[in-house]
Design brief:
The structure is a homodimer of 308-residue chains. The first copy, chain A, is 46% helix and 15% strand. Chain A is built from 13 helices and twelve strands. The relative contact order of chain A is 0.14. At the A-B interface, α3, α4, α5, α6 and β4 of A face α3, α4, α5, α6 and β4 of B.
């Protein structure tokens, strides 16, 4: 799957993933109203609004980007209906040729991680049949419980040609609380990065591994070090835009081949219409605002890479 | 909610939580057959089997134990249908007077953790209405991303009288890979334990905090130290039974007041009918086997506490 992702990045010239993290406050009034008229102000109504909003954005950007990253929490808060909208969104994105990175941050002891890996990347046996439940292309994984929480995901990656991104250094302000603690003089995130490199060696694509890492755009210096520790890991970089990361911060996440990183933007793209910069589009043309935000982000990254 | 949990532990004399982690291989043939006849060998059929199986166990043990802990991964693997069975199980357990600990191990950056906290413990706004999606009583939380991933859960605990158990030292063999790494001479899990104590101080019940910790029965020596570091935290202890933890290993997780710990057993109870010890019950009486396994576990723990 990493080969497919790289191919799509090269085709589009966009090392960009659109974070489909819908919040009701991002959704234009006309979409909310239509959904609530159909289903009432219910969880089902909210889920329908989320789906219609996502669909508009996906239609507007699918030729420009290689991948999307739906954040499952934003769907899970609307219960079963929300999770059905997550699945519908993931399926639709795949139909449109997009790589789907499920931002699920799961991780548990062995047999339980097996179930999560089956749920999101693999298949589950029911009698004599096998089913893929959510069937994303990649998933994000939390490493706190150690290797035996990650290995079931590696097995599925090998069997099903899927991939994972392991949390290494996250973009949030308090990520350092545990991740930066020094162990023998080196921060924990470096040790996790070394494990990512080790795990990834067993799941290689043709040039990069199916096992990537999450490293926040908000920590460019750490990104520089982690780039060296995990040369074959694709780095999924959240924190661009709304969280404060800029194009110039991103250059160290890339290898000299111009590959090795994919930058996520969520509200910076999906809620572009609410920003002053894109206000002229208005609520009715929210999806066009998202398209313009992708074009601007692509340009920002390309310039930063050209100037490095 | 911690006060309710303690009250139920005292009423039943069982510091025991039944892990509702159904795998199809645990489910008696007659239940599988009936579900597959109704819905086919589909995800819906699997979910129906899981629900019927759970219901039998819950009916058989609900007067003996204070709480259940459904592991959401085991439901998530069956997709939307599986998650509907999770919700149905949680709702049914609450009807039966059981405290429901959602074993979800979520954790993400601030706004995303807010969504998870709303999904599982709190409420979400839809227009002028507010809905609780999964509405468990407690949830397990992964701390790797630091305080701002945990704080949204604390806020919901305060507002809604709910609780969390933060992963500190997990029961799996490779939990030490990161959790045991020494930071200034002390293992990471101790630092996480200190944070749990700090976070918990803002969410006190009458004697214990709404913020508890997960510490595996498989690590009793570490449990002894963590008990001291987090005196007001209830410790949820997985790893008893199938993972190798014994009654005698558990005594250090309890405080001198006989409280402070609740011991989880999953397959040791729910798949008791498949063990040699309980084979006489047979598949038809699988739920009675679970009941007997709870009684035996209660006795094992009571003896260990009496002998300490």
């Amino acid at each position: 799957m990493i080969d497919t992702l790289i191919q799509k990045i090269q085709e589009t010239g966009s090392p960009i993933v659109v974070g489909l993290d819908p919040m009701l406050k991002f959704i234009p009034e006309h979409i909310l109203r239509a959904a609530f008229e159909q289903y009432g102000e219910t969880l089902q109504g909210a889920a329908e609004a989320v789906w219609q909003y996502n669909k508009g954005i996906v239609d507007a950007v699918c030729d420009l980007v290689p991948a999307v990253k739906p954040q499952i929490a934003m769907y899970e808060q609307f219960g079963i209906d929300g999770l059905a909208a997550f699945q519908k969104t993931a399926d639709y994105c795949k139909e449109k040729g997009l790589v789907v990175i499920g931002d699920i941050k799961r991780g548990d002891i062995g047999s339980t991680s097996e179930a999560y890996a089956a749920a999101h990347l693999g298949k589950v046996n029911v009698g004599t049949h096998r089913y893929a439940a959510f069937d994303e292309d990649f998933a994000t994984v939390n490493p706190y419980m150690g290797a035996d929480s990650v290995k079931p995901f590696l097995k599925v990656c090998q069997e099903e040609n899927k991939g994972i991104f392991v949390l290494v250094k996250t973009s949030n302000p308090s990520s350092g609380e545990f991740q930066d603690r020094l162990i023998g003089g080196r921060p924990l995130y470096e040790l996790v990065g070394e494990k990512v490199a080790e795990w990834g060696a067993s799941c290689m694509g043709s040039s990069y591994s199916q096992v990537g890492a999450v490293v926040g755009a908000t920590y460019p210096e750490q990104g520089k070090i982690l780039r060296r520790i995990m040369p074959k890991a694709y780095i999924l970089v959240p924190g661009y835009g709304a969280q404060g990361g800029k194009g110039a911060d991103l250059v160290h996440f890339f290898n000299d081949d111009g590959l090795g990183a994919i930058i996520n933007s969520s509200r910076g793209i999906i809620a572009a219409w609410q920003q002053e910069k894109y206000a002229a589009f208005g609520a009715a043309r929210y999806a066009e605002a998202s398209r313009q935000a992708v074009l601007d982000m692509r340009e920002d990254i390309a310039q930063a890479l050209a100037n490095r």
